[in-house]
Amino acid sequence: MSMGWFEALVLGLVQGLTEFLPISSSAHLRITAALAGWGDPGAAFTAVTQIGTELAVILYFAKKIGRVLAAWWRSLYRPEWRRHPDARLGWLIIVGSLPIVVLGLLLQDAIDSAFRDLRITATTLIVFGVLLLIADRVGRQYRTLDQLTVPHGLGYGFAQAMALIPGVSRSGGTVTAGLLLGYTRSDATEYAFLLAVPAVFGSGLYKLTDIGGENSPQWGPTILATLVAFGVGYAVIAWLMNFIKTKSYVPFVIYRIALGVLLIVLVATGVLDPDAGPAL
């Protein structure tokens, strides 16, 4: 597919704005391209531009990630470190990453094709928006990351793996699981960001070979989109971490449901082709 510089700039902005909000960046990339008549940017473009937003996570949480890596490394050869909270968090990030690795490889063909149907995107936007609302309302929010266990880590991980379907939202699915497990909004959100780092880098690096091919976006526009996503994503992280200290996820739920309904109407009325761009 041919992708121009302006298209890459817009999609990079969309990626940076939506990656960390519980509204699904992959859905917004898919919808933006469809509405503009650009066609589906593809799973490879989405995966590679997400590297930019994860670099923003590493920069924002640099001290935290540094402590976790140092403690985890020490725990490899010093048994007394294996009970250290940062070392345990490192191991639990690895455990939580297993579901998306396994399911990502098993469902690769569906991820690149069937899952990108706009009707599926609309449905997941609504359904997982409702689930986020329920979790935000009923979650007891008394646990911190120091209380994270292996079963909880796997629960987070399977929730993250649902984001292989555009519309679910990596952060939204993971935060929903965390709230249902009793974790505070801030801790559930922080772990969602940290858990995404190995998964996104793994996916992005795996998809690098698909960039620059005959039917894929070219390197120049993809790099531009990735850099834009990095800069915008960093600002969004800072805003969201401050927002959730005093606010709930309800505004994002309302937005998800409204967008999902609008998408269903556009597809049902023939304005959008569920498999491509504008039908008119």
Provide the gyration radius in Å: 18 Å
Query: How many H/I helices?
Result: 12
Residues in β-strands, percent: under 5%
Determine the fraction of residues in helical runs and give it as a percent range.
over 70%
Secondary structure: number of strands: 0
Q: What summary fits the major beta sheet?
A: none
Mean pLDDT figure: 91
Amino-to-carboxy terminus distance: 20 Å
Low-confidence stretches: none
Order of helices and strands: HHHHHHHHHHHH
Based on Cα principal axes, name the global outline: globular
Structural class: mainly alpha
Protein name: Undecaprenyl-diphosphatase
Keywords: Antibiotic resistance, Cell membrane, Cell shape, Cell wall biogenesis/degradation, Hydrolase, Membrane, Peptidoglycan synthesis, Transmembrane, Transmembrane helix
Family: Belongs to the UppP family.
EC number: 3.6.1.27
